[in-house]
Amino acid sequence: MTRSHDSLCALLALANICGLRPAVVARLVERFGSAPAVFAAPKAELDRLGIGEKTRAAILCRQPLVAAQRELDRCRRLGVTALAWDDSRYPDLLRQIAGPPPVLFVRGSLELLRQPAVAVVGCRTASSYGLRVAHRYGRELAEAGCVVTSGLALGIDGAAHEGCLAGKGAPVAVLACGVDLPYPRLHRRLYEQILDQGAVVSEYLPGTPPARFRFPARNRIISGLSLGVVVVEAGRRSGALITARFALDQGREVFAVPGQVDAPSSQGCHRLVQEGAKLAATVTDILEELPGWAWEGGKTVAAAKSADRPENPAPALAGEAQIVYSCLDVYPQDIDTLIQRTGLSAGRVAELLVVLELDGLIESLPGNQYRVRTHG
After folding, report:
1. What predicted TM-score, i.e. pTM, was given to this entire model?
2. Is residue 313 one of the residues assigned to a domain?
3. Are residue 194 and residue 255 in the same domain, yes or no?
4. For the chain, the helix, strand and coil percentages under 3-state DSSP, each to the nearest 5
5. With 0-12 CB in 10 A as exposed, 13-18 as middle and 19+ as buried, what is 374?
6. Mean pLDDT per segment of 10 residues, for the chain of length 376 residues?
7. 307: Cβ–Cβ under 8 A, 6 or more apart, which residues?
8. Which of 338, 333, 330 is nearest to 311 (CA)?
9. Which of 85, 167, 284, 367 is 20 to 30 A from 33, alpha carbon to alpha carbon?
10. What φ, ψ does residue 326 adopt, rounded to 5°?
11. Secondary structure (3-state) at 84
12. What's the alpha-carbon Rg for the chain, to the nearest Å?
């Protein structure tokens, strides 16, 4: 096996050990330098890190590595791509969130996951008004050049996906089950259409059945893949509000579509507006707020994609300052992500961020987030 395959296999093995949340996996990989090195770690060192007895036993027996290799073989047979978070094809925006999936499973186009996306979400028991708006926004966002992300659920999600397809766009469906399982079953045909024109993703192994507790975790991926989240219709307890909260925590834009003032299905959207979400009466309201994008004559024009540098490049940097600067772009990243990506100590990264900001090369944002400063 190649080194990259060994790393993917070890990372998948860690992700599937019961009791290891994504944030804990990240901490272990940072501590020992790589995912394979975690499985070679001394028992005493795992004890010092506070790893529980059952989890520690699973790591030391190395059996999860065998199971992970078996799962990767099955992915290959099913045509499913497994992306480790250090894979260059892993979505940049998703990598920046707190607790990104260590491994992301994908069917369909991988390229779409690195293109500008807007999530359109809402309740399952949508009104005819909500379904009409979701379809229209999905279509108009697609026609403007945006990938449309949602959860393939009945109601608003499905209407947004269908609108995107009608606009000849690229939908991305994020599932709370394996990517090989069309769910809900009523959307099997829509699932197949998305595979043809877009992509289906999940953090769960192929064959994993849907379960209630998996949907909130799924929602953080929907928002994590997107520049902004549009809530079309949502009651006070709607799961779409969970997606909106994740979006706020991740520094994404949040939009809410107004509805009838006395309709229960509009209460969640109206509350979001009261709390500061932008009212999205038209798709133009959404597009003109997207970071790094401009709205010109009915089309979105990339002003600065995540892989690009600003028009005025930074002067030559050397050493650790260059390492930190090279990990930044126009989209905000939190300091913990920068520490992980650079491999430098927390204190050193904080020191270099101050220097780069004083030099006018980067800017700090609320929540310990940083981005490259754009000029002109």
Report:
1. 0.77
2. no
3. yes
4. 45, 15, 40
5. middle
6. 77 89 88 92 88 89 92 96 93 91 96 94 93 96 95 97 96 97 96 97 96 92 96 90 92 92 89 93 90 49 39 55 78 80 84 84 82 64
7. 92, 114, 329
8. 330
9. 367
10. -70, -20
11. strand
12. 21
Look up residue 279 and give its amino acid.
L
Residue 92 falls in which region: left (phi positive, over 0), alpha (psi -120 to 50) or beta: alpha
Q: Is residue 276 in some structural domain?
A: yes
d(CA 293, CA 275): 25
Q: Which helix (H) or strand (E) holds 107?
A: strand 103-108
* Residue among 100, 216, 243, 223 nearest 172 (CA): 223
Burial 338-371 (b: 16+ CB within 10 A, else e): bbbbbebeeeebeebbeebeeeebbebeeeebbb
**CA-closest candidate to residue 167, choices 154, 149, 148, 152:** 148
129/53 same-domain check: no
- Do 62 and 116 belong together in one domain? no
Asked if residue 205 and residue 235 are part of one domain, the reply reads: yes
Describe the strand order of the beta sheet including 369-372 as a list of residue ranges: 333-334, 369-372, 362-365
Q: Write the CA distances from 105 to 37, 90, 131, 164, 338, integer angstroms.
A: 23, 10, 29, 22, 24
How remote is the C-alpha of 166 from its chain's centroid?
Answer: 24
In total, how many domains does the chain have? 3
**Token pair for 127:** 């009104």
Asked, for residue 314, whether it belongs to a domain, the answer is no
What is the helix (H) or strand (E) element at residue 335, kind and residue range?
A: helix 335-342
**DSSP helix/strand/coil, 147:** strand
Interacting residues of 132 by C-beta distance below 8 A, sequence separation 6+: 159
Give the separation between CA 256 and CA 276, rounded to whole angstroms: 10
CB atoms within 10 A of CB 190: 19
Q: If you count them, how many residues does the chain have? A: 376
- For the four alpha carbons of 309, 310, 312 and 316, in that order, the dihedral sign comes to negative
The pair of structure tokens assigned to 308 is 């690009």
